[in-house]
Amino acid sequence: MNLKDLKYLVALADTGHFGKAAERTFVSQPTLSAQLKKLEEFLGVKLVERQPKNVQLTDVGKQVVVRARRMLNESEEIIALARHNTDPFAGKLKMALIPTIGPYLLPRVMPKFRKALPALSLMLYEYQTEPLLKRLRDGEIDLGIMALPAEQDGVESRKLYVEDFTVALPNNHPLAAKSSIKIQDLKGQTLLLLEDGHCLRDQALEVCSRVDVREHEDFRGTSLETLRQMVVAGLGITLLPELAVESPFGSQRGLTVRRFTKPAPSRTVGAVWRKSSTRAAAVAAVCDVIDRVMAGKF
Questions:
Q1: Do 135 and 278 belong to one domain?
Q2: How far is CA 140 from the centre of its chain?
Q3: Are residues 174 and 248 in the same domain?
Q4: DSSP E strands: which ranges in the chain?
Q5: Strand 91-97 relative to strand 214-221, pairing
Q6: Is the peptide bond before 107 cis (omega within 30 degrees of 0)?
């Protein structure tokens, strides 16, 4: 048994298809199939159920995959440890951001990363909160940028910045005449929210739980940009984080944005990484750049 065979098995588990697994691991399909058969012979168990147009792992195969992922991640950690012992700020760093942060934060910080950390190559991903944390714990990513707090099981976190929420309204909405809005002003309004799985949905519900606000049951957005369009169409109002308002879409025609009176409801954005990570120095450097950019010091 070797790591390459385990990579083939994990690729098959991820794709559910011999051809796609072969493409992912850069070998021919016959080679991948033959190596998996050898792995089965070595272990003395059947790992894969082979049926026409239907590939499934056996129960023991699924258990082996869980351990194989762990072994592969550990092997990558060993390689990373060796490579970055000489230069911790070089190589690749896999960073994931939640969808309500990534499109608005990255344009601000990416030029600064290239300036401050020229040898560090950031591989960027976008996941909702729970998938992000799972991939972080599984070793598939090195760093996550999300709304805090985060579940602390095996995970370290660091606060990066706080951003206020704002209210997005159609131009002809009565509240658009106000220079700022109190939470009590939202009473009786129809609130447009993101679909389940977005932490911003839960945060908006928490803000509006103090007053009688109705959620629009027939519409749930998949992104903040979708919510903007729904507001412009007159379907309701929504809450937007400050960075999303300052994006190029923030001044969209037909949309009025108003800030809350102080103290405004807000969210804390931070970084999360594994306690066991070998990339702690690079993670800290990336966090320092974001910290300085958001504080106006870079």
A1: yes
A2: 12
A3: yes
A4: 48-51, 54-57, 91-97, 120-126, 143-148, 155-170, 180-181, 190-194, 214-221, 238-241, 255-260, 266-274
A5: unpaired
A6: no
3-state DSSP: the chain helix, strand, coil percent, rounded to 5?
45, 25, 30
CATH number for the domain spanning 255: value is: 3.40.190.10
CB count within 10 Å of CB 214 equals 11
CATH code (residue 16): 1.10.10.10
**Domain residues for 254?**
162-266
Distance (Å) of CA 280 to CA 88, 109, 121, 285: 9, 19, 15, 9
- Give the count of domains, the chain: 3
Does pTM top 0.70 for this prediction?
A: yes
Helices marked H in 26-174: 29-43, 59-84, 102-116, 129-137
* Distance in angstroms (rounded) separating the CA atoms of residues 295 and 291: 6
Q: What is the pLDDT along the chain (298 residues), one digit of tens a residue?
A: 899 999 999 999 999 899 999 999 999 999 999 999 999 999 999 999 987 777 889 999 999 999 999 898 888 878 776 766 667 888 889 999 999 999 999 999 999 999 999 989 999 999 999 999 999 998 889 999 999 988 778 899 999 999 999 999 999 999 999 999 999 999 888 888 888 778 888 888 888 777 777 777 777 788 899 999 999 999 889 999 999 998 765 567 889 999 999 999 999 999 999 998 888 999 999 999 999 999 998 8
Are residues 260 and 175 part of one domain?
yes
Same domain, 231 and 274: no
Are 167 and 258 in the same domain? yes
33 and 103 co-located in one domain: no
